[in-house]
Amino acid sequence: MKTSHITLSGDEFMKKIIFAVLAVALVGGAGAFAYVKWQDSLAQRTVATFTNGLKKKQFETYEGLFSSTSLKKADISEKEVITKYDKIFNGLGMSDITISDLSVEKKDSKRVFRFTAAMDTGLGKISDQSYEGTLVKEDGKFVIDWEYRLIFPGMKQNDKVLMYTEKPERGNILDRNGVKLATNGDFPQIGLVPKELGSGKEREDNLKKISDVTEISMEKLTEALEQSWVTDDSFVPLKILERNEGTGPYTDLQGVTSSRVSRRFYQFGEAASHLVGYTGAITAEDIEKSPELASFETTGKTGLERSFDKQLRGTPGGTINIVSETDEVRKVLVTSDKQDGQDIRTTLDAALQQEAYNSLAEETGAMVITQPKTGELLAVASAPAFDPNSMVKGMSDADYNKLAKDKRKPFLSRYNLGYAPGSTFKTITAAVGIDAGVTSPDKERHIEGLKWQKDASWGDYFVTRVSDVPTVTMDTALIYSDNIYFAQEALGIGAETYLKGLKKFIFDEKLSVKIPMEPAQISNDTIDSDILLADTAYGQGQLLINPIQQAAMYSVFANNGDLSYPSLLTDDENKVKKGVITPAAADSVKQAMRQVVDDPNGTAHNLQRLGINLAAKTGTAEIKTEQDTKGQENSFLVAFDADNSEFLVLTLIENYSGTSASEISAPVLSKLKQ
Known about the structure:
The structure is a single chain. By secondary structure, the chain is an alpha+beta fold. 32% of the residues lie in helices and 23% in strands. The protein folds into three domains: 36-156, Roll (Nuclear Transport Factor 2, Chain: A); 173-313, CATH 3.30.1390.30; 350-383 and 416-673, Beta-lactamase, CATH 3.40.710. The strands form eight sheets. Strands 6, 7, 8, 9 and 14 form a five-stranded mixed sheet that branches. It has a five-stranded antiparallel sheet with strand order 16-15-25-24-23, with helices on both faces. The protein is elongated. The termini are far apart. One of its GO terms (cellular component) is plasma membrane.
């Protein structure tokens, strides 16, 4: 076998050895460096899981995160630790938790982490909480050496985090004269004391008697008693009674006692229920949308109670403390003074609101009363309605279902619902026509019969009228409410000019008044046919205007052509749209509206008996699926003080069959003049 020998000089050999040693050293050093980096990464990942769980309040991610040695030392299980975090941070409504200045550094075989946390609470902000903890190796991975100070710095074993709150007084909703539409009242409340119910059959019999008298089902009584917080000595609320209702029939029952509770009270009940609204218990969904609500029991659910909830509810006061097992305050995390809610003063007149609702009586409809010079809403009523006090106290399922299934829809507010305005809209068509130079009070149209169509291209479609008056002027057209006259006038004006005139009003505008509503609509798209133009002229077609918007539009006739936007708060700016129609057009239409009342043939002549100088227009809008059939008819009245423009009334009666809007409005108009 042939072998080869490599001969190296001494220097070359030493160079080879040195190179090999350096290579091994370099490789070993890189590995060690990578190992350290890997360990740092594991430690940082553990800390990130902890801080992210804190930020997101997702404490279930803490499973397996803490060392068993530290948990044993603290005499607590991992499950108990997770529950503590959940009860403190979720239970006390902590939100917007932020983490800053996070660092992890090596200390011998351990790692030390530090960060600063801040968070919002219902009582204010907790800021600059400096956390420090230790990471140790356990089963080959880094885990946190858990201590109580990792809940809050300064916290020790057996300490608790407690919130003491002072509830603010909810602000009142007032009318223009300071009369309380919504306030806080003291109500009697009945409830159960579990230990006094007895046990076994005695308990069952007592609950059955309580169920029969209170009309609360056995199932609901059982649910109330099985709530997690209930103890033998607890007062378990069942029912809030009427303010002046005696508790005797209930407290005579074994296991039932009473207390007093502060709740919202609505003096005018159904008369203002849609507008004022009501409050109700806060739900988990409410808190999810607005975390600050965690400090409250109730919130505004509908109406002004909802629109102005933040101002009305105020800000709770109190403290969040770390407290020792001997109830010593170890650390104050946050403290604040309560701020009672603000009062909301509306432009409403409570007496007029009640009168408006009473006038609607058993009808289905709405009444809006304004001060046309300023746009101030004096009354906004809708019928049928519901009792908001029953909603606050807790309405039974049977009573709620009865209201919910009522075909007249008592939960629906009609004053902000869009309707075809019917013949009341002819006043606006007349004004637009005057300003377009087409309509004038003395111009005559000769119309034969009770129906008319432009030409044969309209097929089977005709415009109809009620009175066969052969010679018609603008005044007589308004007095007799002649559909054909205004259809012909609109065709003479032309769609482009007519639309331009209408758009000077408040169509397609979103009003700033704090009442939810869709903008007023002229048509679904545009007026693209003569038939639609004709129908629009006398208040049908595709017009959709709610009673509040109608009242605002008709204010031009009381204001020499200026439109007053509706306002609901006394400190709202009185916004006016100048020159919607000319003063001449406003005056001409106003004089014709006076004749609608004064002329024996006028459709509002029944109001003359009131002895008030009124300008008015009635309207009937028919809703039907096809011509030559009878559809639902809605009756309207717009009437205002023709002398001083001190008030304007817009009344709607839905599905009118006997009593018209003008008859319904008469008592209110008399009261307004007084």
